[in-house]
Amino acid sequence: MILIAAADRNWGIGLNNELLTHIPADQKFFRETTTGNVVVMGRRTLESLPKGEPLKNRINIVLTGNPAFKKEGVTVVHSIEELLKEIEKYPGDSVFCIGGAKVYKELLPYCDKALITRIDEEYEADVFLPDLDALSEWSIAEESEEQTYFDLVYHFVTYKKENNNGDLTT
């Protein structure tokens, strides 16, 4: 599974169930990367999408503890075990964890790659990604040249997780 997110200097990802900022190139990267694939998210992330509707041209899976939750156009799972069984149907490199913070934290152990848009700014945030730079099993595999959107500086960074042998996973 691949984690995909945009995070500020402090690994903040959102405030009041909204993204911290909107960068057109980041949104385009997200759309192009996830279209035609599987996206896994929490219920509140689904509700934060335009009109609370599933993402088009993707298989949408919602992980929620709410047993009564139902939504047309999504597959609902209620546990990590149920999610792992569901995503066995798909190649690992086609499954993207798209948030929110609780889902990122719960699914990080099952991810072997993270596509992070690192925003060189500090925002007020109430939800955060785990700091991949501080986790010994994660390392930067690729980093884009500096990108700008008006006065905002950011980089597209690919992190990979090392397996138990110390080798980077593919």
Describe the structure.
This protein is globular. It is an alpha/beta fold. The model has no long low-confidence stretch (mean pLDDT 94). Strands 1, 4, 5, 6, 7, 8, 10, 11 and 12 form a nine-stranded mixed sheet that branches. Strands 3-2-9 form a three-stranded antiparallel sheet, with no helix packed on it. It has four helices and twelve strands.
User: Uncertain spans, ≥5 residues at pLDDT below 50?
Assistant: none
Structural class: alpha/beta
* CATH homologous superfamily heading: Dihydrofolate Reductase, subunit A
Largest sheet: 9 strands, mixed
- Name of the top-level CATH class: Alpha Beta
What secondary-structure arrangement, pairings included, does this model have?
Layout: E1 2-7, E2 12-15, E3 18-19, H1 24-34, E4 38-42, H2 43-48, E5 59-63, E6 74-77, H3 80-87, E7 95-99, H4 101-107, E8 113-119, E9 127-128, E10 138-143, E11 147-149, E12 152-161
Parallel strand pairs: 1-7, 1-8, 4-5, 4-7, 5-6
Antiparallel strand pairs: 2-3, 2-9, 8-12, 10-12, 11-12
